[in-house]
Design goal:
By secondary structure, the chain is an alpha+beta fold. The protein has 2 domains: about 40 residues, no CATH class; about 90 residues. The chain contains 5 helices and 5 strands. The strands form 2 sheets. It has a 3-stranded antiparallel beta sheet, covered by helices on one side. It has a two-stranded antiparallel ribbon with strand order 1-4. Strand 2 and strand 3 form a beta hairpin. The longest helix is centred in the middle third of the chain and has 18 residues.
Amino acid sequence: MTGLVLKLGPKERVLVNGAVIENGDRRSRVSILTPNANILRLRDAIRPDEVNTPVRRVCYIAQLVLSGDAKEDEARHQLLRGIEQLSQALCDPDSRKQLSDATEALTESDYYRVLKRLRTLLPREERLLAASRAVS
């Protein structure tokens, strides 16, 4: 059996194709068998007031598609442009790999995977911004 397996903690909420689902009082495992279902863990969601860096901005666009708040066609162009801009700033091999994987996922309209790959860049971006503030 293939698909996405979500491991949910007690009372954890997840957005599935626009519907908020809350887990019960115990940990559970849920298998999502429908291909291309839009899934977003609400604990991982970036709030609008947190969209204050380049990587967060691109992640937020992917998140909007998953939540149903943005149309794929409009978001695809913004995501491609955002990933291209990030690739000009993040030149290390690991970042390039993650951006390449995000682009591949985007070509397959797999917005969950796009967001997953882009989120791996958040700690790196935070370190770079912290180092830049320390120099200033």
